[in-house]
Amino acid sequence: MMYNTSAGIVPGKINVHLVPHSHDDVGWLKTVDQYYVGSNNSIQVACVQNVLDSLIPALVADKNRKFIYVEQAITHGFFALLSFDFLLEINGGMCMHDEAAPHYIDMIDQTTLGHRYIKEQFNVTPRIGWQIDPFGHSAVQAYLLSAEVGFDFLFFARIDYQDRAKRINEKTLEVVWRASKSLGSSAQIMTGISPKNYEPPSDNFYFEVGDTSPIVQDDMNLFDYNVPERVNDFVSAAIAQANITRTNHIMWTMGTDFKYQYAHTWFRQMDKFIHYVNQDGRVNALYSTPSMYIDAKYAANESWPLKTDDFFPYADRENAYWTGYFTSRPALKGYVRTMSAYYLAARQLEFFKGRNEVGLSTDSLADALALVQHHDAVSGTEKQHVADDYAKRLSIGYTEAEKCPLLNISYCPPSEVDLSSGKSLVVVVYNPLGWKREDIIRIPVINENVTVKDSKGKVIESQLLPLLKDSMSLRNSYSTAYLGKSTNVTPSYWLAFSASVPPLGFNTYIISSAKQAGYESSHSGMRTVYKSQISQNDTIEVGPGNLKLLYSGKRAKLMRYINSKTSVNKLLEQSYIYYRGDDGSKDLQPSGAYIFRPNGTYPIEPEGQLSFTILRGPLLDEVHQRINPWIYQVTRVYKGKDHAEIEFTVGPIPIDDGIGKEVVTQITSNMISNKTFYTDSSGRDFIERIRDYRKDWNLEVNQPIAGNYYPVNLGIYMKDNSSELSILVDRSVGGSSIADGQLELMLHRRLVADDNRGVSEALNETVCVFDKCEGLTIIGKYYLRIDPVGEAAKWRRSFGQEIYSPFLLAFTEQDGDHWANSHLATYSAMDTTYVLPDNVALITLQELDSGKVLLRLAHLYEIEEDTDLSVMSSVELKKISKVTEMNLSANQERAVMEKKRLVWRVEGSSKEQPTAVRGSPVDPAKLVVELAPMEIRTFVIEFYSERGSFSDALYRRSNLRRKATFSLP
Amino acid sequence: MMYNTSAGIVPGKINVHLVPHSHDDVGWLKTVDQYYVGSNNSIQVACVQNVLDSLIPALVADKNRKFIYVEQAITHGFFALLSFDFLLEINGGMCMHDEAAPHYIDMIDQTTLGHRYIKEQFNVTPRIGWQIDPFGHSAVQAYLLSAEVGFDFLFFARIDYQDRAKRINEKTLEVVWRASKSLGSSAQIMTGISPKNYEPPSDNFYFEVGDTSPIVQDDMNLFDYNVPERVNDFVSAAIAQANITRTNHIMWTMGTDFKYQYAHTWFRQMDKFIHYVNQDGRVNALYSTPSMYIDAKYAANESWPLKTDDFFPYADRENAYWTGYFTSRPALKGYVRTMSAYYLAARQLEFFKGRNEVGLSTDSLADALALVQHHDAVSGTEKQHVADDYAKRLSIGYTEAEKCPLLNISYCPPSEVDLSSGKSLVVVVYNPLGWKREDIIRIPVINENVTVKDSKGKVIESQLLPLLKDSMSLRNSYSTAYLGKSTNVTPSYWLAFSASVPPLGFNTYIISSAKQAGYESSHSGMRTVYKSQISQNDTIEVGPGNLKLLYSGKRAKLMRYINSKTSVNKLLEQSYIYYRGDDGSKDLQPSGAYIFRPNGTYPIEPEGQLSFTILRGPLLDEVHQRINPWIYQVTRVYKGKDHAEIEFTVGPIPIDDGIGKEVVTQITSNMISNKTFYTDSSGRDFIERIRDYRKDWNLEVNQPIAGNYYPVNLGIYMKDNSSELSILVDRSVGGSSIADGQLELMLHRRLVADDNRGVSEALNETVCVFDKCEGLTIIGKYYLRIDPVGEAAKWRRSFGQEIYSPFLLAFTEQDGDHWANSHLATYSAMDTTYVLPDNVALITLQELDSGKVLLRLAHLYEIEEDTDLSVMSSVELKKISKVTEMNLSANQERAVMEKKRLVWRVEGSSKEQPTAVRGSPVDPAKLVVELAPMEIRTFVIEFYSERGSFSDALYRRSNLRRKATFSLP
Question: Which of A278, A798, B12, B689 is the 20 to 30 A CA-CA neighbour of B840?
């Protein structure tokens, strides 16, 4: 029997766009490779090879059939065999990235990797954002990763159940989403939200091998002929959906994740439905794609409701807020951020060096980083063995170029050389930012008698801080866990000194035995160790510079924040609590990897004076607090910095009592914050959050804590009439303001129950040394500052960039002055007279395979964010032969994208903004790039010389990096 | 990556024959149609269309790949698209028939239907018997349905676990099976028994979509590369199997039932195994088929152990004897037998009439009957809704030609016409046997004053028997259940008279009102109703002829069997018991649809005199016994018959007490049977059974009752020095002799637990009238006779044939003598001077589509079974232009089959028998067919005239059957 599947759109009828689709997560319950080859099926039946192998014959068999698939990472190379454009029209990134945990730079990188691959291999430019699975949707996804990429449509499924109910009721599931205050209508995106999920419209239309939906039985020679009933089912479902949808066009997402293992089973039934439903004639059914659907929508010339801000947080039902995953697997989230920063810097160095002339390649790291942006990867919602796989891939990517990945737990063999033997340690410090920069570097050393010289041979101020007991035992334990052996050398001190490095450049410091270098250990100011003396009623002042933190010695607690330069003087407390994770005994909704479901708040009181140690020195003061047996905290106040740095060590969280715990730090002031606080969107725009309130609907509050949590990638702040209190983070976490004047961050979670969203594991991370396993301990940092109101953005934006891109350190040894004499000691890729403007960051500098260079510049400020810096800025390019402005993902010219972009009408003219300010096209003669607030501009540039001027200097001394080892601070 | 799958057989190595296969039961948990289209997947994931759709591309993709599939019924027509011979080489019947419940005639018919279809459509002749799933294996399957069909090999998997263990130990899993005493080595078959089951050799080699076996991960670019491990797994499994197998050839059955839903998933892995295992080189792996395998075995020129008798009963583990299904669904088994008989007769009539000249066709019934021989159909091991589907198909097949299917529960509208209105009832009685025959016919009538005339108008003796209350209430209830309405006319009597019909012919009887016919109701001997008078201490003698049954009036029980003609005089008791079906509480092995697991024996005592009624008359006496509220029994002794007929009505079996019950009738004598009894093999050969003993191994007895049960299709008997006690049955049942001198039949079973073999339903048949459901009540018969020793075979064989082929009745009405004057009243298709020899039956007479005729003649006796009749017999054919002897399934000429048959050597020359006696080839000049004991010979014959001489007479009066309605007694 041949079925007529040739139906196109029929005007005047309800058109049911059947969009066959699936996606196979690039890791979730199984690893990406296991999904691909179909192994480990006892965990989950999923095999991408089956999908691909069965799909192509099914598509070849009937040219009317369609199929869309996302996540290039898992299908890489396959489509080379045969290309159907529609297969590639959606997303096109390496994965369907999460929208809460990834940083926008990672989102751009992974999308660019996929988009350029598809463009080069198949000359296809994806048109549709297809974020059907992520658990909430960020403003950055809308305006950057959709509009700026050139998409005409963004489709997803997961929004708050209350929001969805209202939208269904008001026919507002399809909206124009204007997510950027700064870029306004110039970066808005037509957005479709599924009425239910990304699956067929009712339980009756699933046709995977083994699914139980009634097939269309149209053989009259057999029993159970059911064509009339099934056509009725179809028409009823179509009419029901049409009743909540504008225009005559509705989309049915025919598939779900991990399906089409045998594609034929779906197409056979859809063939029949199209044939018989169209014979029936009440509605029109057709094979379609999101492109065909959206073009039909556009042709209807309808006006659409406007949506601003974002779609966080997401609850799929009462008491089920998906806000736990903002923090789940904080170590993985931290590792991803570290690797992300390393990748940014490494690409710069790779470019300077030239991709083709050196073994070092960032490709594996690029792939691993792209993969881990997946919505069940950095999100922390995968099974443990899959999380391990992601970490392994990052580690391999990193190791392909470098060694020494464990510096972040104070283990770094090159710096632990015994300098008394006469050797010196050479530290090359690379600054990936476009600004000159000073920062304190800390290196573990064995000897007490060390001295630090700058690249000119001048001894500079340094400070020794003793490694305390808790830190040592953690170091030993984790060295054994991850390296399989304990360390044979034990450092005694952290050596701290201030490094100053030019933009996109490096500087060199030499560390030697003080004796050998001719200095005595008593040399004034070089290194100082203090231990605080605490008296019962003391107020203890900490900080060698402008910033002073006042502690109560009696309570061993922070009391007050004073900055003499800005005249800020504020009561300030900092504390830890934990939420008891609900175990599901009430209503089967426990707290888990996805969901934050607190069941009680429990303060964690410090243990008192004995656990309170202060180290003072010329460069910084450190306050060490052992909060309880499993929380350790170091607060650092630097002489040259006006913020406090808090390093927390949390874990193993005890669960012997059978109770899962979600550990939170709270910063409490007496500010009148009026329920309002601000969190960033994917590390970029700050969005106003109001406690127990949603702009789009009348919130029914059932989870007053979990329902007010938001993802924090860059920072969180609150303000009142006089000041702003900002916290910046070193990785993605969840945060909120549950009480006025207070901010909180969830730092770590360890739970005992699965939250019934598929992962089927309690989030209970452990680390094993030999056979002994205990809960994972994490170390992280956050940064705290109070500014006069209106003056805080500068720190958040500039220092935020420094957090994202720390100095990159390389170590080597020298005998005598050999190294210093034979190597360039300091360098900047920029003209010495030039730095980037304060409001512009270089977020991509990467040599492409073609030899061309990808350059991305980002304005760091929103409109009205800072009096001085929320203005048009400009960057001058030099020695460049050709510059082509591209869309964000660099798979098409910006001008082409703008020209073909669909322009959607918005309901109500009053909502039309004035056209946003944007930088002008680059004049090839002047080569000046203008950047308006929040603008990111992407260029492919070509140089006159083979290697380009950025790297000319470095190129002449290419032996430098051959011996160097780049490391991560 | 291309895999080298071209390996053939490699001498000197272990050759692992990978035989990709599956079978989709033609009904089990789902109906045959549901399996085909893949509906009702919530019960079971199975879709034959998926198998077929995915298989052909997989086979086309690599010509080395193979696949075998059975059960033509479910794939009918599909292979027309594309034929791979190997797809069709196994079985080739419409189904993989059961071997316990089907009658050999049904087995032949269904195999013939499939074989001729395959031959005509694809010119393929299957070579291999592939009975992998049936639950035990019959001698008839071996020598008739394998050897006589022309197979070179029979393969199956299910044998007793103790037997298998011994065979594994002794390397005797492959045997020459010489199953017929009479035909000996002339009908033996090489037989292979799987070492475990019909699945891959270990749990590690299953590759269905969703299976969890480790795939061969051979992509070095991905993690988890496992080629060496998987090759080792393969080699280990091969060596393990080679160690228990003769020759270098082992077969791996790569698949199982309902698999290859997406065939590619299997072939992809097998491709890899063949490629890498052969690269490894320790063993040789190849795509193969049973044909390739067996040819390789044959080439090894090995001698093989000999096996005789059969493989019943089957236990898959301790306490798990699959002997319950011998009786499961006795109503379905009865319906199948009734339809089988009707089909045999209907084909004769169809041939007489000519297939093309009449609307009546037996094709649907042929299909339905073929289908229901399936090993989860007549076996009674399907789900209830599937059993209903089989019954529906039989009913439709029957209804396509005829009406009135409910005569067997005393509902037959044509015969219930009120004859007082002046009309007469015309009964045309057809005799499908090749012998002249007399039998008592019973018809329900309303009036008391009726008379019966023969075709010459002569009034013949008749007898009225009142319809008793119990029978009436059952009739009303079942009429409502099956017809949806209660009957509007209530018959009062059974009218009994003796009909005499020539071979392959009919006779006509006219029933009219006695008054109208001029006879008074007092007319002597015409009809008589007696009610017995019972006195307390009486011995009551029952029976108007030679046979007398003596009852104790006091005990209301049978006491003695006396035949004055044969001088048999035996103590004889008959009783009912029930076995309590085990509920699985001990060891999770309940009694169920498959398994008989008794847990206690409970006698059922008759209720006493009030339930004991005797009806006497000139033709027969009836003893009515209400044994208990749910067992009713009528024993009939006919004047002209030397056996007793017992009609039992059993049900609804009560299970209100939560206890399943398996109802058994026991016949107890004082014979010294010495543990020995005999049961037929599929209705043909009788096989000696010895209680608690197996010929092939030392039986460890753990189920002294269930382990001694055997299937009974024709009958069961025992003997001692003086006499033989035989019981013949009207359908397939389970039977045994649990005590010396005693035989028993299990008549009905109703159980409360599933026996964990997949059907997932307790065997609890119910019948619903409107919303009220109660347990199924069945009515059946068995026949009992005691003969002097050595003289019993004649009755068993001749009367057995009469039971299988009862008279076929057609009814019409006439006013006055209209019918009699216009129609031929009596007829025989045979020359009036000829009947078939007493030891030969005509088992097939069927017009083929080609106009040719299929004729099968069966010798009914085994060697040494009867002094007079176990001899060569001959049948003369006349007026035939051409006769071609065929193999049993008529898909090849017998001579061709014999010529190409492989001749296997048997171990030990002493086991070689003298060549069996067989009939000579038919001389075309003489047209005499010789038949040796147990020989069945199959011919395609052509006639000189268009219609053939058999039907000449009938053809001239073809209007006869236009008005007649054929019915079933």
Answer: B689
The answer to whether B751 touches B595, Cβ cutoff 8 Å, is: no
Distance of CA B7 to the CA centre of its chain: 43
Rounded to the nearest 5°, which phi and psi values hold at B384? Answer: -60, -45
Q: Is B39's CB within 8 Å of A210's CB? A: no
Question: Do the Cβ atoms of A936 and A842 come closer than 8 Å?
Answer: no
- Interhelix angle B264-280/B48-61, rounded to 10 degrees, is 40
Helices H, strands E: what count in chain A?
18, 49
Q: What tens digit of pLDDT does each residue of A739-790 get?
A: 999 999 999 999 999 999 999 999 999 998 888 899 999 999 999 999 999 9
Q: Coil, strand, or helix at residue B269?
A: helix
Instruction: Give me the pLDDT at residue B969, please.
Output: 32
Cross-chain Cβ contact B209/A261 below 8 Å: yes
Interface size between A and B, measured as CB pairs under 8 A: 88
C-alpha B98, offset from chain centre: 8
Plot region of B484 (φ>0 → left; ψ -120 to 50 → alpha; else → beta)? left
A371 in Cβ contact with A386 (< 8 Å): no
Q: How far is it, in rounded angstroms, from Cα B108 to Cα B858?
A: 12
CA torsion angle for B879, B881, B886, B888 (degrees, to 10)? -30
**Planar angle of CA B43, B46, B48, nearest 5 degrees:** 145
- Collect all residues with Cβ–Cβ distance below 8 Å to B862 and sequence separation of at least 6: B181, B182, B685, B686, B870, B933, B934
Q: Counting Cβ atoms within 10 Å, is residue A236 exposed (0-12), middle (13-18) or buried (19+)?
A: middle
Cα–Cα distance, A708 to A694 (Å, whole number): 10
> Which string of b and e fits B633-669 if b means at least 16 CB within 10 Å?
bbbbbbbebbbbbbbbbbbbbebeeebbbbbbbbbbb
B41 with A265: Cβ contact below 8 A: no
Q: Which residues contact B851 (CB under 8 A, 6 or more apart)?
A: none
What is the DSSP code (8-state) at residue A546? Answer: S
Write the pLDDT tens digit of every residue in B695-722: 999 999 999 999 999 999 999 999 999 9
Distance of residue B148 Cα from the nearest chain A Cα, in angstroms: 34
How far away is chain B from the Cα of A218, in angstroms, using its nearest Cα? 9
User: Among B829, B855, B828, which Cα is nearest to B842's?
Assistant: B855
Asked if residues A128 and A145 have their Cβ atoms less than 8 Å apart, the reply is no
Asked whether the beta carbons of B33 and A222 are under 8 A apart, the reply is: yes
Question: pLDDT band for position A121 (50/70/90)?
Answer: confident
Q: What percent of chain B has pLDDT over 90?
A: 71
Q: How far is CA B921 from CA B587, B835, B931, B937, B954, in A?
A: 58, 22, 10, 10, 31
d(CA A443, CA B524): 129
Residues of B with CB under 8 A from a CB of A: 31, 33-34, 36-39, 41-42, 45, 47, 49-50, 53-54, 57, 209-212, 214-215, 217, 219, 222-224, 261-262, 264-265, 268, 389, 392
- Cβ pair A302, A696 in contact under 8 A: no
Nearest Cβ partner for A45 among B31, B36, B210:
B210
- pLDDT(A80) > 70: no
How far is residue B184 from each of residues B249, B856, B878, B916, measured CA to CA in Å?
28, 21, 31, 6
Is there a contact between A589 and A320 (Cβ–Cβ < 8 Å)?
Answer: yes
| C-alpha closest to that of A672 among A738, A718, A717 | A718
Say if strands A153-156 and A128-131 run parallel, antiparallel, or are unpaired: parallel
What angle, rounded to 10 degrees, do the helices at B104-122 and B363-372 form?
Answer: 110
The ipTM of this complex is 0.87
In the prediction, which pLDDT does B516 show? 54
